[in-house]
Design brief:
The complex is a heterotrimer of chains A (479), B (294) and C (553).
Chain A: H1 2-18, H2 23-29, E1 33-37, H3 47-61, E2 65-71, E3 78-82, E4 86-91, E5 95-97, E6 100-101, H4 109-118, E7 123-127, H5 132-143, E8 147-152, H6 161-174, E9 179-182, H7 185-195, E10 202-204, E11 226-231, H8 240-253, E12 257-262, H9 268-277, E13 284-288, H10 292-299, E14 304-307, H11 316-323, E15 327-331, H12 336-339, E16 345-348, H13 352-368, H14 374-381, H15 387-402, H16 409-419, H17 422-445, H18 463-478
Parallel strand pairs in A: 1-2, 1-7, 2-4, 7-8, 8-9, 9-10, 11-12, 11-14, 12-13, 14-15, 15-16
Antiparallel strand pairs in A: 3-4, 5-6
Helix pairs in contact in A: 3-15, 4-5, 5-6, 8-9, 8-13, 16-17
Chain B: E1 37-38, H1 47-75, H2 81-105, H3 115-139, H4 145-162, H5 173-187, H6 193-220, H7 222-243, H8 245-270, E2 276-277
Antiparallel strand pairs in B: 1-2
Helix pairs in contact in B: 1-6, 1-7, 1-8, 2-6, 3-6, 4-5, 5-6, 6-7, 7-8
Chain C: E1 2-8, E2 17-23, E3 29-37, H1 42-56, E4 61-67, H2 75-86, E5 92-97, E6 104-109, E7 115-121, H3 123-128, E8 130-131, H4 145-155, H5 157-161, E9 172-173, H6 184-206, H7 217-232, H8 241-269, H9 273-300, H10 310-334, H11 338-347, H12 353-367, H13 369-396, E10 399-402, E11 407-410, H14 415-465, H15 468-476, E12 481-491, E13 498-506, H16 509-516, H17 529-538
Parallel strand pairs in C: 1-3, 1-7, 4-5, 7-13, 8-12
Antiparallel strand pairs in C: 2-3, 2-4, 3-9, 5-6, 10-11, 12-13
Helix pairs in contact in C: 6-7, 7-8, 7-12, 8-12, 9-10, 9-11, 12-14, 13-14
Classes of the chains: A alpha/beta (479), B mainly alpha (294), C alpha/beta (553).
């Protein structure tokens, strides 16, 4: 339990003390064993997935040990290794809906305990409030006496019944989580309200964009026409209905306007119907689902990037668009106004008239040539959001978190009951006690001491590093 | 940049991510949650207005009660099918006339149905009902009476629940179908084929045509609408009272509950409402975008 | 690195000489195939190896020398070393046996000494066996080591044939074959089979067997049998192991089938069994009809206390009763001819048991035709009701099925549409239990018949597809079909390399059947059980024993 986690820390600390560094430097050089948990990971594709992957890579680069835990995807079960020894556990858990696993609060404990003990994890970092596995792991990690961090990637309303339930669940799982990371200030406000948190333990660390993957290339543009690029999943939340209204309005006014739309989804039908009704087959191209590597090649063909989302915690797409040197027009919802400086983005209300007005303004500017060159836009955007920066800031969160004390069981029960309301609080206090008893049973069946320790692939004693180090050494000898 | 690292610097904090600000990541500014709004666009109700709206619910309840009363009379043989048919015919003619009068005063935008179409519909109703009435008569013979009653009760309840009270014309498919199903079940318990026919015609009148007329009335003459509602309620209670006193008392209680108590409850609970809005809410599309694709 | 030497057991006591064999490509191992004895003329050895290499396609070479400890001469050592200059090689193995030792010693010249491992194998067994799963016969360096060993040994048959009559210029030791694994009779039969095959295939081409009537299982069986015969009688000899096995299997199964058929015929035509059968058949059919009639009477009442719609119940019951009446008259009309039909039908057993069974299945189908008819009527009626109810249920909820988009859309119906729809829905709903009960009863009857026919079909299928030859081969010559090998330690003495004995692991019987069964329609994918139940529930007609392309409904 808690003692184990601390014991590892102490051993870590003693090693570093023996190397003769001061206490302060030690705090900064401390290496963590981090376990990222989420239902969403490769081969599933999306924002959360790439966030976890890229953040983990940067943390490994900084010398931390990172393992990822997710559920199995089809035949992909067991342990896989990714670049730089990033170890991924695909746990055999049943998927319920939308890649989220079934949760019973208990059945994932044996597997998670196994992973956490074997890998000597010090910090559990869960991602996405849609992921049941993330909630489970936060709960179990607290039972096992580990420190936890949670990153929230999405915004939620308060009005409908499903969000009321999800918010209650979030309140319970985050009530003793040490630190929460949000991707924008709006997201922070949202999360603080939803989970009734102290805003002091919520940090804002924006997402990042691999700007080297999104470089401008004006030669790909057609100069005799103006092309508007839209890249998003074609679903209601992304405002595709608005797009269906914008296309005919603008196409009728500007005969030299083209639309290039990448993405797939149920709302594709709307766009196809619009295209058919107004005979715009040569001007509106629907590219279907795009692979991540193809996104840049589509972006550089356009002059204007349009985002019509109805809600967005942190819009990576507009950063990617700006990084490719496009003029960005977007709806002003969620965290979008915080993302880009005013002169790089044109913000509109989420309705057809306002979006059309905004687009027309940008089109006029584009015609008159009063826009900065793609290269200059890229130069401004490229250093705004980098994964290295994200990793540095996340590392500080970890540094803060490992110093904190994990609440013992009776304190935890008190906190649950005082924080989450009398009914839900009592129920989950009971669940916490059961979870603890279950853990005791597991520890009696297979004590922590006799569990095999996993081979470190990444981290300070990672085999991967040593191997590559040997390779480097031999190559340098050769040269 | 990390949490808890720097003291307050002189520059003001801005809510932007693209600028590296000299504040820790977990910094909480005074402007935190300043965009939070509560109970935006909350509607304030007035008691009597709500009572008036609830009247249409009470009216529909009374309609069901009247239908059941008619059925009870028929089953006990107190009402002969010829009389019922004749009354229905007269009512239908009167109602149709009133409908036409109300339609002619202000012409609505939709193309009006021709008399021929109305006649055609009426012919279809009558011929099908008449043709099927022997079949319907034998349909539930082997099913026990309790089952039929239970089924009818469930279906009438479904009719009341799914009735489109805000837009009763044309009546919603599910509610109308449920009511018709219930009336077929009940009608098949009656002694003869003509009884069945008369009962179904009556059901058509009460459940299909009456809501259309009432809707017209509500649009064109709102003052009369209230009167009609009150009249229907009294008629329902009175009719049921002539057969069963307990039923009448229960109906009166239900009507009082729906029209007077429920609005009171709504208005009291409205004060407790606490709704949070902010920039994180999903934007709603208010405009009608369907014209772009149709 | 461990050097593995595959050594034939028969050469253990060979006289001293040269080792002939092959290096295995891509692996650090060698296969010894034979030992050429002293004295020999090097030129002849070279020419001999050249010949065998071109004949077999295996790259043979002189691997080294072999010496028995018979006369311990001093000069032998040097002589053996000198041999290497005559046959230039990368690696030169020098294997020798010492007095008082069971193991051999081996030294490799001009190479850094590695560990040496001897694997002894039975040359005859390895040569004749086929390693499974079957792959191409060509030598492929990417194959596994074991597979290459098997291939090299079996491809090097010419090596053993060249000195068959013991009068060649060279003397060698290897598995001394006294002819192939058969006798002169087999050879003669092979010769004789060619004209026979030619005549059969000519006959088959003449016969108009393209009239494939898929409904009668006898015809299906006929077409299968003719296909088999056609394959069997093709005048070309079988190329490759699997084609040979297929032909042999088909031949054996035809022979067994015909033998069983003749047994059946013997039984039928002795003791007047045919007329006994014919006399029993008509009363049996009558009895079935009586039982059905009683069942219908029961259904027309209040079966199992269920309350059905009286009017519809009566209509349906009378309809079916009339049908049974028709059926009984038909049976009685047929009864004088039954014996003759059976007598001629019995002759079909001469073509094989499978034909008799297929004919029986067809006769069962014909005799239970009334049950089939009932089932079809019941199913059609039920199906109609189900479809009507499902679409009217959508109307009831104010929805409709959009055919173009394949989904349920909401739709605002007219008042008269709603009224008539609800009326029909109510009627159908209350009549549904009656139809469903009739359907249920007749489906159960139908399933009974289907199960009976299914068993017959399964038996026929078994006769057609069971690889009898392969099974017999597995039982009598287990080494012919190998699944792998197992090793056991032969001797492990301190100064000699490790000696292992390689034995062939025979293929398990289950996989013999799986690999060699003749493909018939039972091998094609059929409806899954859930699919079948779904079809039954919806009221679609089922033909479970037919395979998909044959089904024409």
């Amino acid at each position: 339990m808690g003692q184990r986690g601390r014991a590892v820390l102490q051993s870590n600390a003693s090693q570093q003390e023996s190397s003769g560094t001061s206490q302060d430097a030690l705090k900064h050089n401390r290496k963590h064993n981090i376990c990222m948990v989420s239902d969403f990971f490769y081969p599933n594709m999306g924002g959360v997935e790439s966030h976890i992957y890229l953040l983990s890579q940067c943390l490994i680069e900084k010398g931390h040990k990172v393992v990822i835990v997710t559920h199995s995807y089809g035949k992909r079960k067991g342990v896989r290794y990714l670049t730089n020894g990033l170890k991924v556990y695909y746990l055999p858990l049943q998927v319920m809906y939308n890649q989220s696993t079934v949760t019973t609060c208990f059945h994932s404990l044996p597997l998670l305990r196994c992973v956490l003990v074997r890998e000597r994890i010090t910090v559990v970092h869960a991602h996405s409030s849609f992921s049941a596995l993330a909630h489970d792991s936060l709960f179990h990690a607290k039972t096992m006496g580990l420190n936890t961090v949670f990153t929230d990637h999405s915004l939620f309303g308060f009005a409908d019944i499903s969000s009321v339930l999800t918010n209650k669940l979030l309140t319970i799982t985050l009530c003793d989580t040490n630190h929460i990371v949000c991707v924008s200030y709006t997201s922070k406000e949202n999360t603080v309200l939803r989970a009734a948190l102290n805003p002091e333990i919520v940090s804002v660390i924006p997402n990042a964009v691999e700007s080297t993957d999104f470089t401008p290339d004006p030669s790909q543009r057609r100069d005799d026409r103006i092309t508007i690029v839209v890249i998003s999943r074609l679903v209601y939340r992304k405002g595709i209905d608005l797009l269906g209204g914008i296309i005919p309005e603008l196409c009728l006014k500007h005969p030299d306007l083209n639309f290039l739309i990448g993405g797939e989804g149920p709302k594709r039908l709307v766009l196809e119907e619009v295209r058919e009704k107004y005979q715009l087959h040569d001007r509106v191209r629907l590219l279907g689902a795009l692979e991540h590597k193809d996104v840049r090649n589509v972006l550089v063909q356009g002059h204007i990037f349009l985002n019509t989302s109805l809600t967005e915690a942190f819009c990576m797409a507009i950063v990617e668009g700006a990084s490719c040197g496009l003029q960005v027009v977007s709806t002003c919802v969620g965290g979008i106004p915080e993302v880009l400086p005013e002169d790089l983005i044109t913000l509109c209300e989420p309705n057809v008239r306002s979006l059309c007005a905004g687009l027309e303004k940008v089109i006029a500017r584009q015609r008159s040539g009063a826009v900065p060159t793609p290269a200059s836009i890229h130069a401004r955007v490229k250093n705004l959001y980098t994964w290295r920066n994200v990793a540095e800031r996340t590392e500080k969160v970890y540094d803060r978190v490992v110093g904190e004390e994990v609440l013992p069981l009776h304190m935890r029960i008190q906190r649950l009951r005082s924080h989450c309301g009398p009914v839900a609080g009592s129920i989950f206090a009971f669940v916490a006690v059961l979870d603890f008893l279950f853990l005791l049973l597991l520890q009696w069946l297979v004590p922590d001491q006799i569990m095999d320790l996993a081979v470190d692939a990444s981290g300070p004693f990672g085999m991967w590093n040593q191997e590559s180090g040997i390779k480097k050494r031999t190559s340098s000898q050769k040269s | 940049m990390g949490p808890d690292s720097a003291p307050d610097p002189p520059v003001p904090w801005r809510k932007v991510l693209w600028e590296r600000q000299p504040f820790p990541d977990n910094y909480v500014d005074g402007r935190f949650l300043e965009e939070l709004r509560r109970n935006e666009g909350l509607r304030q109700y007035h008691y009597w207005a709500v009572v008036k709206e609830a009247g249409s619910v009470g009216q529909q309840l009374s309609c069901v009660a009247i239908f059941i009363t008619v059925w009870l009379y028929m089953e006990q043989g107190l009402l002969s099918p010829e009389v019922l048919l004749l009354t229905s015919l007269v009512c239908a003619m009167l109602g149709y006339g009133l409908h036409q009068v109300l339609a002619s005063t202000v012409d609505s935008g939709d193309e009006p149905r021709t008399r021929l179409a109305d006649l055609q519909s009426a012919a279809i109703f009558l011929s099908f009902t008449y043709g099927f009435s022997p079949v319907l008569k034998t349909l539930t013979e082997s099913v026990s009476t309790d089952t039929v009653y239970a089924m009818s009760a469930v279906m009438l309840l479904a009719h009341l629940i799914f009735f489109p009270y805000t837009q009763p014309s044309p009546p919603g498919s599910l509610s109308l179908n449920a009511a018709l199903f219930a009336s077929v079940c009940l009608a098949s318990r009656l002694p003869g084929a003509l009884h069945t026919f008369a009962m179904l015609s009556c059901a058509l009148l009460v459940f299909a045509l009456w809501p259309c007329l009432l809707q017209r009335l509500r649009e064109k003459a709102p003052s009369q609408f209230t009167g009609v509602c009150v009249g229907m309620c009294i008629g329902g209670i009175g009719g049921l009272g002539s057969q069963s006193l307990v039923g009448a008392v229960l109906l009166a209680l239900a009507l009082g509950n729906v029209t007077f108590f429920c609005p009171l409850l709504l208005i009291t609970l409205q004060r407790q409402k606490d709704n949070i809005q902010g920039p994180w809410d999903e934007a709603e599309i208010h405009e009608d975008l369907s014209h772009f694709i149709q | 690195m461990v050097l593995k030497i595959f050594y034939p057991q028969c050469c253990n006591l060979a006289n001293s000489g040269l080792l002939i064999g092959s290096w295995i490509q891509g692996h650090n191992s060698a296969v010894v195939l034979a030992v050429v004895h002293y004295p020999f003329i090097p030129g002849q050895v070279k020419r001999y190896i050249q010949q065998v290499s071109t004949a077999s396609g295996v790259k043979l070479s002189v691997l080294g020398s072999w010496s028995l400890p018979s006369e311990a001469e001093k000069g032998v050592e040097n002589f053996l070393r000198d041999l290497r200059t005559i046959f230039p090689q990368d690696r030169w193995l020098q294997i020798s046996r010492k007095m008082g030792q069971t193991g051999f010693n081996c030294s490799i010249l001009d190479r850094s000494q590695g560990t040496i491992l001897f694997v002894h194998y039975d040359q005859r067994n390895v040569m004749l066996s086929q390693l499974h799963p079957i792959q191409t016969e060509e030598l492929d360096p990417s194959d596994s080591e074991l597979r290459q060993v098997f291939q090299i040994v079996s491809l090097s048959q010419p090596l053993f044939l060249l000195d068959r009559y013991d009068d060649g210029p060279l003397k060698s030791t290897h598995w001394q074959s006294g002819g192939q694994e058969a006798s002169i009779i087999v050879e003669l039969l092979k010769m004789a089979s060619v004209p026979l095959c030619l005549t059969i295939s000519c006959l088959l081409h003449l016969l108009p067997l393209n009239f494939l009537c898929s409904k009668l299982s006898t015809c299906v069986q006929l077409s299968y049998r003719s296909d088999h015969l056609r394959a069997l009688s093709s005048p070309k000899t079988a190329v490759g192991h699997s084609e040979f096995m297929r032909k042999a299997n088909v031949l054996v199964s035809i022979l067994v089938d015909m033998a069983l058929g003749f047994l059946l015929m013997y039984w039928l035509y002795s003791d007047n069994h045919i007329s006994m059968l014919a006399n029993a058949l008509v009363p049996a059919a009558d009895h079935v009809a009586k039982e059905l009639e009683e069942l219908l009477q029961w259904l027309m009442g209040a079966p199992a206390g269920l309350k059905m719609n009286r009017a519809l119940d009566e209509v349906l019951g009378r309809f079916f009763l009339y049908h049974i009446h028709l059926w009984i008259s038909y049976i009685h009309l047929m009864s004088p001819f039954v014996e003759t039909i059976l007598w001629y039908g019995g002759l079909s057993a001469g073509l094989g048991l499978s034909f008799a069974l297929a004919l029986l299945s067809d006769m069962v189908a014909l005799l239970t035709f009334h049950i089939y008819c009932f089932y079809v009527y019941g199913a059609r009626l039920y199906c109609l009701k189900i479809y009507g109810l499902s679409s009217l249920w959508r109307l009831f909820r104010g929805k409709k099925w959009n055919v173009l988009r394949q989904r349920v859309d909401s739709c605002s119906y007219d008042l008269d549409q709603l009224f008539i729809g609800t009326l029909l829905f109510t009627i159908l709903l209350f009549l549904f239990p009656t139809t469903a009960l009739y359907y249920l009863v007749f489906t159960l009857l139908r399933l009974l018949v289907v199960v009976l026919q299914g068993i017959l079909h399964l038996t026929v299928d078994l006769i057609n597809s069971l690889p009898l030859f392969a099974v017999a081969l597995r039982l009598t010559r287990f080494y012919r079909l190998a699944e792998g090998v197992k090793f056991s330690v032969l001797c492990d003495e301190p100064d000699t390399p490790l000696h292992l004995l390689m034995e062939i692991n025979p293929l398990s019987c289950a996989s013999v059947i799986k690999t060699y069964r003749t493909p018939t329609y039972s091998c094609y994918p059929k409806d899954s059980w859930t699919n079948l139940v779904k079809k039954l529930f919806v009221g679609e007609l089922i033909y479970p024993w037919k395979h998909k392309t044959i089904k024409t409904d």
